[in-house]
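Raw record, unedited: 6-carboxy-5,6,7,8-tetrahydropterin synthase
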Amino acid sequence: MLVKRIFNFAAAHNLVRYHGKCEALHGHNYRLEVTVEGTPNEEGMVIDFLELKKIVKDEVLNILDHSYINNIIEQPTAENISMWIWNKLEKKLKRDNCKLYEVALYETENNVVYYRGE
């Protein structure tokens, strides 16, 4: 079973090792989808949505929302941001009955990266 929670955050960045429009400072209203895979526990849940929300807020949103991402991630492409998010969440979401399955990061409504670990 897959359980997904959707989040939004706004942040600025620029791509220092890129030659083009995104080389300049700019921002995005990101959409983040965090998907957990597992089997329902004795309470009938793979993971409590409230617990998932708290973990993502504490580990990711409180750091990235309204930030200059270059201060956190050297080359903040959507791919690198997705991997950073995965690394922040993977251990926190590992349980006997579930684990992190996928991070989807929408930089725009048309540009998305899906990351499922290595």
